[in-house]
Amino acid sequence: MASTSDIRNGLCIKFNNDIYKIVEFLHVKPGKGPAFVRTKLKSVTSGKTLDNTFSAGHKIDVVRVETHTFQYLYNEGNDYHFMNNETFEQITLEKSILDAPELLKEGTNVMVQINTETESPLSVDMPASIVLEVTYTEPGVKGNTATNATKPATVETGAQVNVPLFINEGDKIKIDTASGSYIERIKE
Fold first, then answer.
1. Distance CA 22, CA 12 (A)
2. Amino acid 145: pLDDT
3. How far apart are CA 78 and CA 72, in angstroms?
4. FRET label pair with 182: which of 4, 78, 133, 175, CA 20 to 30 Å apart?
5. How far is Cα 68 from Cα 167, in angstroms, rounded to an integer?
């Protein structure tokens, strides 16, 4: 058993007869009353998120997990296939477990957390950013903007991303996988 002082991002806990991954947390010490921890939890089975507040010192049941590097191979409908980079063993995960499946490109390495008790995959951690090529976007018109104007662009995985007006088809862009937003253009 652990307590609220052990809470950190990515920690998997048993809560309400399910396994949740802590996405965000904030320790709050109000001027009056006891301290507490405000958390955002994501269910690893259903993918739903919920907000919960734990009082300071509350006991939490931590799930032991191992993290392994897997390479994304391909998808068939809602099934996504990955290969362990060390043992070459392949696993299939459902789309609901993935945070940003529309940004996955074949050959991308991801970190998969596996429950050590049941040997079942719990969650997939994408790289912080990914570089993708723009396959379609409307041409930007110079002088047609005030400030920070964006336009929709389709990248090679089929995802839609809002990009600045100077981005053209064939450009490679870096995308933040957590928010799905444009970071920068990559020059080669």
1. 6
2. 59
3. 14
4. 78
5. 36
